[in-house]
Amino acid sequence: RKEVEQDPGPFNVPEGATVAFNCTYSNSASQSFFWYRQDCRKEPKLLMSVYSSGNEDGRFTAQLNRASQYISLLIRDSKLSDSATYLCVRGTGGFKTIFGAGTRLFVKA
Amino acid sequence: DAGVIQSPRHEVTEMGQEVTLRCKPISGHDYLFWYRQTMMRGLELLIYFNNNVPIDDSGMPEDRFSAKMPNASFSTLKIQPSEPRDSAVYFCASSRGTSLNEKLFFGSGTQLSVL
User: How many other C-beta atoms are found inside a 10 Å radius of the C-beta of residue B52?
Assistant: First the structure.
């Protein structure tokens, strides 16, 4: 089993839609989680950290479920500019980070 | 703030040649990471440094790969000899590393093609 697993998609949604991605991880000792965004032919950039209590940043909400070992990202009111690949990331401690393969999102007009 | 600077942006070489990728981290960042990204394997951590010292190189695929960080502002990833399966985008990233939630800042990457 991969350390971090994501549905590769692609997710094709219309503008204004709500879309959610899940990511599962295999190591219950994982301490920190993140969502990164990567545009085509660009470098990954941090979208948001994921806390046990959940966190929200505008249209984006991230949740962590330690019991089931998954994290989620919810995007409300999708914009064309949200089209990208979303990478689930877990920190293993010692600053080593493991990236998932990514979920591709296409938002259509 | 200049960000993480990588060079070259693109490298095309022939199998068997030596390839050197370069990275300048953000000033003040104590951690430097080298990643490789391919369609098949996604983003893989190759090696990372803390205060110029290699901490974990377990991701380095084989002896053909080596990385150095002679000072706080410069790192290299070398492949010798290169093979077609090394073709990928190589990213360098840095972070302050003051907490586990410290974000990674990535460079623009080097697109390597080995013919």
Answer: 15
**Which helix H or strand E contains A33, and what residues bound it?**
strand A32-38
Count of CB atoms situated within 10 Å of the CB of A78: 21
Contact A94 B101 (CB under 8 A): no
- Rounded to a whole number of angstroms, the distance from the CA of A45 to the nearest CA of chain B is 7
Q: Do A98 and B91 touch (CB under 8 A)?
A: no
Q: In residues, how long is chain B? A: 115
Q: B81 with B17: CB under 8 angstroms?
A: yes
Contact across the interface for A97 and B104, Cβ inside 8 Å: yes
State pLDDT tens for residues A69-88: 899 999 999 999 999 999 99
Tell me the backbone φ, ψ of residue A40, rounded to 5 degrees. Answer: -55, 130
